[in-house]
Amino acid sequence: MTTTQPRTEPTRAARLKGATAKVSGRVEILEHHPVLGFPVASYRRFKEIQGKQLAFVIAGNMFISIIPLFIVGYAIIEGFNPHRSFAVIVIQRFHLSGETANVVRSTFANAKSGRNVALSLSVVSLFITGFTVATTVQTAYARAFRLPPMRGAQKFGRGAVWLAMLLVFTALTLTLRYWAHSRPWWFIALSVPVLIAIDFGFYLLTPRILLDVPFEWRHLVPGAAICVVAYAIVVFVSTWLMRNWLSAYGHAYGGFGVALAFLSWIGVLATFWVWIGAIAGVYWERYASPEELKGAHAADEAGADSVIEWSP
Question: What is the spatial distance between Cα 148 and Cα 71, in angstroms, rounded to a whole number?
Fold first, then answer.
């Protein structure tokens, strides 16, 4: 007579399933908490839209297209002045010194003879991969707002507008911060509100450009304000991280290490962009007017087939 031992696997699976359901239930309860609900809901929305994968695509394409264009473009504007090169901006921006500053300076050495070729390659790269940055950010916002992404000429047209706005706003921000290093204290005091206004305008306009929904401005203002505060924190933390990355990677791998540090830094910023899209989407769903929600649902029904395709 043989005896069979009771199976333990179903019991373990049942326990795991029960624990998972319990945790999920508690998280859903936290979403309705007056204080913790908003950040918890934003984090879940970030995971729902596959934020890490989208940030990876954005960071890679920005590193290939936009960063080289800024390097060459700034060098052309400044006439390849060795005292106002892109390397000087990086050194001042991240407060570098010693061997790290020398590595960065040698990595972005001036190349006047190859200026035209470098500019041509940067422009071509911008058109090939730069639009992928805009369309991927469009996809992130569409998922975050649970709306169908735009298609066809409208998608690329608005993506081009957003990309141009990103380049202009970034150039203005870099220029103001560069000038602040050689100007008196009153210039810094005046530039701070200007920088805040630039960031606020960028985050306020982004949903209106990337999504085909008639948003009410008053429902976008609080989300844009939250994004400005969050961006200031992210910039402060990422600047400290970037300084350490440039030092460690630069000493270990030279110019290639500097490139790795920039790729890591851009990855942090790209993750933030996707995350603020999740924040804006959650806030809009909670406080949008019935007319806005009705229009969004109508657009969702009209483009239901496009919701299934969540590829950038």
Answer: 36
pTM: 0.73
| Per-position DSSP letters for 107-141, written without gaps between them | HT---GGGHHHHHHHHHHHIIIIIHHHHHHHHHHH
Please state, in angstroms and rounded to a whole number, the distance separating the CA atoms of residues 227 and 86. Answer: 27
Q: How crowded is residue 165: how many other Cβ atoms within 10 Å of its Cβ?
A: 16
Delimit the domains of the chain by residue range: 44-308
Question: Per-residue pLDDT tens for 263-279?
Answer: 888 888 889 889 888 88
Q: Determine the Cα–Cα distance for residues 169 and 190; give it in Å rounded to an integer.
A: 17
* Alpha carbons 107 and 97: distance in angstroms, whole number: 15
* Number of Cβ atoms within 10 Å of the Cβ of 54: 24
- The residue among 287, 134, 159 whose CA lies nearest residue 219 is 287
Residues constituting the chain = 312
pLDDT tens-place string over residues 188-201: 788 888 888 888 98
Check residue 304 and give its pLDDT.
Answer: 46
